[in-house]
Design goal:
Helix content is about 30%, strand content about 25%. The strands form 2 sheets. Strands 6, 7, 8, 9, 10, 11, 12 and 13 form an 8-stranded parallel β-sheet that branches. Strands 1-3-4-5-2 form a 5-stranded mixed β-sheet. The structure holds S-adenosyl-L-homocysteine.
């Protein structure tokens, strides 16, 4: 079933008129004619059936979908800027895995620098990757994207569990799965291709982060982000499961 995030409130019994891009996607790309779709507005989901009203593509809103496809833990991914294709892969997967927020940052070993002249275009592209990921896997929320911050602003990220993935922590630090025990929010920091400098690791630990190992194998930054997100979301479970227990 196809899902769309509505940009106007949804009312049972009323039609939702698709945006131009949504109408193009629904009628020309996936060719939905009188088919059930999932529509989401401000976190609340509904089922609707596509139709055409006065030549405009719409969906008649039929009933609420009580299922909430969100992680029980509000997860933040603090992700160092890495090469463009890899960073975009991380955004797509972070959205699918269930992160609530992505905070890009620049640290000393980042080879990729933020291009200030292209800042807005890049942010719009990243937001659309997050939206498409969320739509594709039927989330109730689109992960938010913060501005790219310098490394030493990571102390402004707030969460009940704050972890920094450090490849040299194997044998001396906890595994992420051991640190998670029901916290309602968690932030995980993943370094760039070249990793963190020892000073940066110390800084993170001085600012409330716990160094965590993701195992004895050194993962690529993008793998580390996907791995850490999977571990956390598996440990936390979904809102549907947790709240119905
Ligand atoms: N400095 C390393 C590679 C860094 S890997 C080297 O070239 O040898 C990129 C990022 O992924 C790291 O900064 C860390 O956040 C994360 N990472 C990769 N493997 C990890 C592991 N086994 N445990 C914890 N973090 C890991």
């Amino acid at each position: 079933m196809q899902q769309y995030f509505a940009n106007t409130p949804l009312v049972v019994g009323n039609p939702y008129f698709f945006t131009k891009e949504q109408a193009h996607h629904a009628s020309d790309v996936v060719r939905l004619h009188q088919e059930t779709v999932r529509l989401v507005y401000e976190g609340k989901a509904y089922f609707g059936v596509t139709c055409t009203i006065d030549g405009e593509f719409a969906a008649m809103v039929e009933k609420e979908d009580p299922q909430v496809h969100e992680c029980a833990c509000e997860m933040t991914l603090c992700m160092a800027l890495i090469r463009r294709e890899k960073f975009e892969l991380v955004l797509q997967k972070a959205s699918e895995i269930g992160f609530a927020r992505v905070v890009p940052f620049v640290s000393s070993r980042c080879v990729v620098k933020e291009k200030h002249d292209k800042k807005e275009r890049v942010a719009a592209r990243w937001q659309s990757i997050l939206l498409e990921g969320a739509q594709q896997c039927k989330r109730n929320l689109v992960p938010s994207l913060s501005e790219t911050i310098p490394f030493d602003h990571l102390d402004q990220v707030h969460a009940q569990l704050k972890a920094a993935a450090y490849e040299n922590a194997y044998g001396t630090s906890e595994r992420l799965s051991h640190l998670y025990h029901g916290q309602k929010s968690a932030a995980i920091v993943i370094g760039p291709e070249g990793g963190f400098s020892p000073d940066e690791v110390q800084w993170l630990m001085d600012h409330g982060y716990q160094a965590v190992t993701l195992g004895s194998r050194i993962l690529r930054a993008e793998t580390a982000a996907i791995y850490a997100g999977s571990v956390l979301s598996e440990a936390a479970g979904d809102q549907n499961e947790v709240f119905s227990m």
